[in-house]
Amino acid sequence: MLPPADAFLPELQFQTSRSSGPGGQNVNKVESRVEVRFHIGSSQLLTDEQKQTLLAKLASKLTTEGELLLTAQEDRSQLRNKEIVVQKFHELLRTALHKPKARKATKPSKGAVRKRLESKKKHGEKKAGRGKLDF
């Protein structure tokens, strides 16, 4: 079970920089781009099993130090971008830690098997009837 998103806030490191997104001259003056770093190995909220799962599934998104790095620059507001990146972070953890439901193998019903065999028999008889005729 994953803790709520706001429980991770003390473990997240935020950094801001100038954005290349929308905002006109605002882009040149205000640091609205938000970057968040999360070190998976040193997290107090995750179990060892969850840490191993995240390290395996998110390997392509991790830095060489084992930090998860996410950015947001969709909005003009730094605060809104911070909310967006925290939401992205929590969604990424939730999807990576989701365990798919185990599939139970099932057998076809007797009626379905009977219907399939009857169909095959009819098809075979139809093809057998197309043979050469003897006079």
From TrEMBL:
User: Which keywords does the record carry?
Assistant: Hydrolase
Regions of biased composition (Basic and acidic residues) lie at 126-135
Q: What is its EC number?
A: 3.1.1.29
Q: Which InterPro entries match?
A: Pep_chain_release_fac_I
Please give one Gene Ontology molecular function term for this protein: peptidyl-tRNA hydrolase activity
User: Keyword Hydrolase, does the record have it?
Assistant: yes
What residue stretches are annotated with the Prokaryotic-type class I peptide chain release factors domain?
11-128
Q: Where is the composition biased (Basic residues)?
A: 98-125
Q: Which Gene3D superfamilies does the UniProt entry name for this protein? A: 3.30.160.20
Region Disordered: list its residue ranges. 98-135
Question: A Pfam family name for this chain?
Answer: RF-1
Report the NCBIfam families cross-referenced here.
Answer: PRK09256.1
Q: What protein does this entry describe? A: Aminoacyl-tRNA hydrolase
Question: Organism, per UniProt?
Answer: Hymenobacter nitidus
